[in-house]
Amino acid sequence: MAGEREHPNQDVAIRHRLAGKQQPFAIFFGCADSRVAAEIIFDRGLGDLFVVRTAGHTVDSSVLGSMEFGVGVLGIPLIVILGHDSCGAVNAAVDAMTSGDLPGGFVRDIVERVMPSVLAASKHGEVGIDQIEAEHVRQTAALVAQRSHLIADHIAAGTLGIIGATYNLRDGQAGVVTAIGIDVT
Length: 185
Known about the structure:
This protein has helices at 12-18, 38-41, 61-73, 88-99, 107-123, 129-147, 149-157, and strands spanning 26-31, 49-54, 78-84, 161-167, 174-180. With 185 residues, the chain is α/β, with parallel strands linked by helices. The protein has a single domain (12-179), classed as Beta-carbonic Anhydrase, Chain A (3-Layer(aba) Sandwich). α5 (107-123) packs across α6 and α6 (129-147) packs across α7 (149-157). Its cofactor is Zn(2+).
């Protein structure tokens, strides 16, 4: 988003209106990185986005369950998956692939969930970190569409689309890298 920000839907009246019911227009699935706050990046307010965040926007059953709630219960027609440059999870996966050393604890699970994207990027000759991050967004979008029957059914019915984009921390711009069930041209 370029230009002056409006900071919509953040006043007391909006909070009171939303106290009884939410009707977000999009699910935002992004990295837990503190520099990638959906409401700030897209200049949205309370009730606009149903936000799900994990390190490296890695997918697990809690993520899919949250998205299915958003689509199936709240009727949200759009999922936005946002990756970003300087992603610690992607960098850790690249480092692990290069060195053969995996981190310990639950960080290992995150790195292992990102590794298929690193391998896919390498298979396509994409070796730059920006290319790998974009591939991780594409892989994440495809995984969400494939693993959840509810989401796949809504995409097939034409009632849901997924947009995958990458965000540049320095210039504040997001660019689409993939779309499923929606035309962004």
